[in-house]
């Protein structure tokens, strides 16, 4: 049975090669309320791939699967599998601008095909009871007027039945910019997303793009239903320890980073027993002590030793010794 979750109030963005199951398990040690997203998984990988692309740990809830695809039947099949596996939400990627994604006819290029997106959402909603959501941009190429955005949202909401949109507040250039440049070069337009919420008050609207602090998240929450944080949450995961208190009003003690590292040991030992390399887990933990003396030594020690044959939790203990006594204690 899927865990229920309150809203899109705060989530960590789906990030290719970053938000894998090891990353999500680690993030969950820092925050209990944040909605976690998988990397984007294509329908083809799920239906035809040899691996288990839906694998996750029960500890990750609430967790959402992000799908890439544009065939309504295939998306419906994958959404049904996701619900059967216990995912709390299915999200359709209508924001990724990479050439590879466009060639597969999914991602941001779908912004130009609102009717098809609506058909995809409707097909998924027909077969599942969990939320089906859309992550998109504010426009593509020269199609970046506010009217274009509202036409897209209106069509997908009315004809597809979608009631939740996560909006990356930049447009996407489908040619000429790399995916990395598309995350940095097109200017952010937060007011446009705020206006969208005013014009579609019945929809749940969350914002993504450039959010670096919880103070910024709080400012966005004055206007919107939710905030999705991307690279900052990954590169500086220590800030996630404050999310439950700061954004969800929980009266819980802030997670101690040393305790968080040690809370990973049973998971790591279980993974090592399955043949997972230590570095596949610890690569997501490198930024945990950002801003604390000894953080560089922590990163360096893990980077140099986690990939060695036989590396186990003793590597983490040795790395902790370089930083643990330098962490300021809460009063």
From TrEMBL:
The residues that hold FMN are 14-16, 66, 135, 168, 208-210, 230-231
- This protein's name: tRNA-dihydrouridine(20/20a) synthase
Q: What family does the Swiss-Prot or TrEMBL record give for this protein?
A: Belongs to the Dus family. DusA subfamily. Belongs to the dus family.
Which GO molecular function, any one, fits this protein according to its record? tRNA-dihydrouridine20a synthase activity
Keyword Flavoprotein assigned: yes
Q: Which reaction does it catalyse?
A: 5,6-dihydrouridine(20a) in tRNA + NADP(+) = uridine(20a) in tRNA + NADPH + H(+); 5,6-dihydrouridine(20a) in tRNA + NAD(+) = uridine(20a) in tRNA + NADH + H(+); 5,6-dihydrouridine(20) in tRNA + NADP(+) = uridine(20) in tRNA + NADPH + H(+); 5,6-dihydrouridine(20) in tRNA + NAD(+) = uridine(20) in tRNA + NADH + H(+)
Provide this UniProt record's keywords sorted from A to Z: Flavoprotein, FMN, NADP, Nucleotide-binding, Oxidoreductase, RNA-binding, tRNA processing, tRNA-binding
Its taxonomic path starts at: Bacteria, Pseudomonadati, Pseudomonadota, Gammaproteobacteria, Enterobacterales
| Pfam families documented for this protein | Dus (PF01207)
Top-level taxon of origin: Bacteria
Free-text function comment from the UniProt entry = Catalyzes the synthesis of 5,6-dihydrouridine (D), a modified base found in the D-loop of most tRNAs, via the reduction of the C5-C6 double bond in target uridines. Specifically modifies U20 and U20a in tRNAs.
Asked if the keyword tRNA processing belongs to this entry, the reply reads yes
Which cofactors are required for activity?
A: FMN
The catalytic site is made up of: 96
Q: Which InterPro entries does this UniProt record tie to the protein?
A: Aldolase_TIM, DUS-like_FMN-bd, DUS_fam, DusA, tRNA_hU_synthase_CS
Marked site, Interacts with tRNA, at 93, 180, 183, 296, 299
Q: Where is the DUS-like FMN-binding domain?
A: 12-319
Q: Name the EC number(s).
A: 1.3.1.91
């Amino acid at each position: 049975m899927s865990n229920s979750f309150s809203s899109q109030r705060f989530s960590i963005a789906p990030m290719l090669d970053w938000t894998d199951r090891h990353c999500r398990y680690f993030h969950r040690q820092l925050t209990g309320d944040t909605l976690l997203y998988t990397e984007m998984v294509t329908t083809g990988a799920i239906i035809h791939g040899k691996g288990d692309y839906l694998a996750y740990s029960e500890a990750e809830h609430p967790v959402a699967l992000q799908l890439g695809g544009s065939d309504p039947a295939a998306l419906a099949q994958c959404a049904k599998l996701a619900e059967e596996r216990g995912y709390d939400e299915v999200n359709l990627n209508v924001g990724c601008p990479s050439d590879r994604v466009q060639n597969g006819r999914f991602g941001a290029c779908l912004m130009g095909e609102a009717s098809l997106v609506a058909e995809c959402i409707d097909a998924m909603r027909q077969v599942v009871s969990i939320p089906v959501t859309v992550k998109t941009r504010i426009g593509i190429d020269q199609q970046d007027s506010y009217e274009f955005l509202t036409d897209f949202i209106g069509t997908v909401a009315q004809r597809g039945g979608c009631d939740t949109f996560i909006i990356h507040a930049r447009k996407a250039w489908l040619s000429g910019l790399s995916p990395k440049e598309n995350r940095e070069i097109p200017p952010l337009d937060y007011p446009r997303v705020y206006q969208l919420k005013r014009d579609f008050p019945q929809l749940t609207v969350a914002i993504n793009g450039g959010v670096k602090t919880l103070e910024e998240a709080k400012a966005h929450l004055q206007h919107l239903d939710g905030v999705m944080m991307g690279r900052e949450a990954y590169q500086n995961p220590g800030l996630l320890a404050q999310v439950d208190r700061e954004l969800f009003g929980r009266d819980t003690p802030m997670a101690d980073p040393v305790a968080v590292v040690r809370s990973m040991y049973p998971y790591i030992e279980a993974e090592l027993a399955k043949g997972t390399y230590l570095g596949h887990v610890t690569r997501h933990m490198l930024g945990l002590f950002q801003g604390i003396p000894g953080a560089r030594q922590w990163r360096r020690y893990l980077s140099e030793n986690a990939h060695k044959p036989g590396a186990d939790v003793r590597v983490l203990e040795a790395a902790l010794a370089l930083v643990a006594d330098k962490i300021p204690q809460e009063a």
